[in-house]
Design a protein that fits this description.
It is built from eight helices and five strands. By secondary structure, the protein is an alpha/beta fold. Strands 2-1-3-4-5 form a five-stranded mixed beta sheet, sandwiched between helices. The radius of gyration is 16 Å and the shape is globular. The N and C termini lie far apart (40 Å).
């Protein structure tokens, strides 16, 4: 069983159970949107000592939790499971995700940083992402950046230091 050095932040105990089934790893549970200062302090401490990977559900509450953690600890790592891979019978989430999708997400962790702009808004527009949901979703998939609208994609591309040339290369456009 593969050991993961970083602590993985998940939303609840069923998410922890699936992570522990797949990996030798420690988790911190946010208890969904009930995340509080005590949990954020714990995440901050874990990030200083071992590093942290955030793996929340691919839905709006999951994004809110991720954003709260990023505000407090900007240097954390992110793992994203695609929505299509996390749909259960009645719920959407990490606990419902395909095991292969969770493994892939943790193999393709990204780190965001806000200090550099690697793609301008003009370059972003020139990629025909705004008018094409299919193209936008493809870029999210290619770079393992989760899911969101065009504005979120623009922010995440910059935070992950991905340039227009990087996108074109992955798309096979040039």
């Amino acid at each position: 069983m593969e050991k993961i050095k970083e602590v993985i932040v998940v939303e609840g105990k069923t998410d922890t159970a699936i992570i522990k089934k797949l990996f030798d790893a420690d988790t911190i549970e946010t208890h969904g949107l009930a995340i509080n200062d005590e949990i954020l302090d714990l995440i901050e401490q874990a990030n200083q000592s071992r590093g942290v990977i955030v793996l929340t559900d691919p839905d709006y509450p999951g994004m809110q939790i991720r954003n709260k953690i990023m505000e407090r600890v900007p240097s954390i790592k992110h793992a994203f499971v695609d929505k299509k891979d996390a749909i259960g019978k009645k719920k959407l989430g990490i606990a419902e995700a395909r095991e292969e999708a969770i493994i892939e997400a943790l193999e393709n962790v990204v780190t965001f940083s806000k200090d550099i702009q690697t793609i301008s808004w003009e370059e972003f527009i020139s990629l025909d992402i705004i008018g094409s949901k299919e193209r936008r979703l493809k870029i999210y998939d290619l770079f393992h950046l989760g899911y969101g609208n065009a504005k979120t994609l623009f922010k995440r591309l910059n935070m992950a230091h991905i340039s227009k040339q990087d996108i074109l290369k992955k798309l096979g456009d040039k």
